[in-house]
Design goal:
The structure is a single chain. By secondary structure, the protein is of the alpha/beta class. Helix content is about 35%, strand content about 20%. A 7-stranded mixed sheet has the order 3-2-1-4-5-7-6, with helices on both faces. Helix 3 crosses helix 4. The mean pLDDT is about 95.
Amino acid sequence: MEELLKYFPKLSEKQQRQYAALYDLYQDWNAKINVISRKDIENLYEHHVLHSLAIAKALNFSDGTKILDFGTGGGFPGIPLAIMFPNVQFKLIDGTGKKILVANEVAKSIGLENITAEHIRGEEENGKYDFIVSRAVMPLPDLVKIVRKNISNKHHNAMLNGILVLKGGNVDSEIHPFRKNVEVLKIKNWFKEEWFDEKNVIYLPI
């Protein structure tokens, strides 16, 4: 929690309570359904919550924005972002039903009312959204093919509607087809922990 408050000092008491509750909830659920590497649960706030919130540093979503979290797993980046932006609507989808169960139960436990989570493949999702967020589920060109149909053409934010994905390492080959439009935002410019040195938010307007 100290890491969160260092970078997001204006969290409300409710938001602080919601974030603080995540550790015990994910530790409990992870013992039943493996959604986070067992070795990594100790690093929940840095490697999962704060990592997800790099998207909040990339763009401060306007109230009323609709976001699809594609391949959410147990709720990342969707749940940390939904806590940060209580007036933004999130839909979390994943092809693994057990992981959606965890995301739903965690959201319910902390009283998140701006989330729905559904066991569905991205190809079957037909809703329209301002942004698609994701955390390294597949190469960017493959993701674009699937979610292009889901991007709304009505814009409400400082950035044009599109895709915001978390990617680590060398992303040159993935972004090459989109090199005229894509932006690679270095997370180390926001978060100083060494773990973020090779991590990026990739923004592609659609």
